[in-house]
Amino acid sequence: MDVVEQQTQALPPLQAPTVPLIPTVICEDVHIVYTVYGAGTGKGSATAALGRMLSKKRRSSNVRRVHAVKGVSFTAYRGEAIGIIGSNGSGKSTLLRAIAGLLPTESGRIYTDGQPSLLGVNAALMNDLTGATNVILGGLAMGMSKEEIRTRFKGIVDFSGINEKGDFITLPMRTYSSGMAARLRFSIAAAKNHDVLMIDEALATGDRAFQKRSEDRIHELRKEAGTVFLVSHNNKSIRDTCDRVVWLEKGDLLMDGPTEEVLEAYEEATGGK
Amino acid sequence: MSTVSETTHNGAVAVGAPPVPSADDGLSPAELAAKYGLTVSGARPGLVEYTRQLWGRRHFINEFAKARTAAQYTQARLGQLWQVMTPLLNAAVYYLIFGVLIGTKRGVDNFIAFLVTGVFIFTFTQSSILSGVRAISGNLGLIRALHFPRASMPIAFTLMQLQQLIMSMFVLVSIVLMTGEVPTTSWFLVIPALLLQWVFNTGMALIVARLGSKMTDLAQLMPFILRTWMYMSGVMYSIDKLTATAPHAMRILLDINPTAVYIDLMRFALISSVTAAQMPPHVWASAVLWALIAGVGGYFYFWKAEESYGRG
Fold first, then answer.
1. Distances (CA, A) of A161 to A129, A202, B180
2. Quick check: B222 and B148 in contact, CB under 8 A?
3. In this structure, are B22 and B164 located in the same domain?
4. Is pTM beyond 0.80 here?
5. DSSP states of A151-175 as a string?
6. Same domain assignment for residues B248 and B226
7. Alpha carbon distance A200, A84 (integer Å)
8. Is B147 in Cβ contact with A143 (below 8 Å)?
9. Nearest CA distance, A204 vs chain B (angstrom)
10. Between B116 and B276, whose confidence is greater?
């Protein structure tokens, strides 16, 4: 495919190529290992557990180590939007969390400019509480000040479109449809501006109108942010948003380059679009 | 625009990552990071900086505690009323067993007020520690998704317990009044006693939160440790009467037990028949000392492992 044509399709680079490259995220031979308890290599019964406790080889019991990311190195620069692709369980989300400083690395180092933030507040929200309370709680959890939340509250609610069909924001979140809940979550998460922004599969939520709104918002966020990372299985949204793609497979970095080249190789490997 | 400029990425095929070759090509990642002032992601901040960040999150901590408390009872029809009902029913059970069935007074005037005070105050420490054990291990989702000083979690949980205790205090005060106590100025001592106990509880919660994040079996073990502790804390009997004939060392050990200290203080504040003469020596000093040891020590101990929470 022609490079020029590709450029008109994707978002134009935010900085002219003559501007010196300023790194914002540097990954140096990053390894991430999860320790999983209760993985159940042995029998689950109490007597079996007791037997394991009494036997000499303790480590082998039901503690398992999962090597999720194996020696990934790359450098991201200011103004880049980087897509991360790979099949399920290839370590994409794990890598993002490590860049955000949320998961410690086993070995290797990750250097970042400021505090990268993961676009996701799902874990901070509580289903039993009203949408309005969750907007406040989620905002505070992301580190916004009370003032900031007060001024943006209406914007967040309007963006989510929760109140389009009545006063739903004052109802508990457990009464929302899954689409409504996903929309509210994205609206809360996207309300903050970030230096290094990481988005984990956030684009595919909600109806068509909402998807359009969220895509626009991501472009906006990208203008404000230094660097954007996007994890997605939707190659179209990667093409629309990213100018560089990193391909992870089983924790290894397979390929790193311009969107079209990597996606073509990826689509070939996974059997078409 | 040229797309092919070679850089190698650890065996990966790298095609045209940076479009312009720059003076940084020869630098190692660490040198490059130093040149542009990048810092290691997820590194533990210094103690002062950490405290500053934690203070910056005070609204989050408060809101989280409030939301958790509210969420606890939303499925029950009586809702928040359970915050008062639970301690009230607890007190009723103890009254039934110790006041009516056994009819024991064990040489204590106003035994019901004495007992209920002990139970409520011990429960405050007990539930703070129990929720502290799971503060990290039970909120891994939140910890792996967002960035905030992790001490926010145990602190939020002890705040929830403090809020619950304040509800219980209303029940306690009504019971104490019903048993014939008359409010005096000594009732104001309730406030410093509670604050000291809260600091102590927070420190303990921070300690067990770190322990519980690594030792996943601690949550199962903790109830037994706490029950043993309860029987040693003079919740249902007067340490003063029990140790009258006991060896001096044992008496001192029972007297400096932090929960016994906080229970003693509360009884002294609320019940007129509990006089200063029955208090162990230096009771306020030990209350302050325990709060300081647990509070400062626990905070420091928790902070030391800040970057490792969320692993595994």
1. 18, 16, 58
2. no
3. no
4. no
5. HHHHHHHHHHTGGGGSS-TTSBGGG
6. yes
7. 9
8. yes
9. 19
10. B116
Range of the domain at B9: 1-38
Tokens representing A68 are: 């999720």
Tell me whether 0.85 is exceeded by the ipTM.
Answer: no
Nearest alpha-carbon partner for A72 in A91, A100, A97, A93: A91
CB contact under 8 A, B16 and A253: no
**pLDDT < 70: residue spans in chain A:** 1-20, 37-45, 47-62, 119-123, 201-206, 225, 272-273
Q: Please answer yes or no on whether B148 and A141 come within 8 Å at the CB atom.
A: yes
Find the CB nearest A256 among B17, B41, B144.
B17
Q: Does domain A20-32+76-269 have CATH number 3.40.50.620?
A: no
Optimal mutation site among B41, B69, B215, interface A, most CBs of chain A within 10 A: B41
Domain identity same for B52 and B34: no
Backbone angles phi, psi at B14, to 5 degrees: -110, 115
In Å, how far from its chain's centre is CA B237? 25
Contact B146 A20 (CB under 8 A): no
Q: How many domains does chain B have?
A: 2
The distance of A158 to chain B (nearest Cα, Å) reads 23
Whether residue A172 and residue B74 make contact (CB cut-off 8 A), yes or no, is: yes
Q: Cα separation of B240 and B245, whole Å?
A: 10
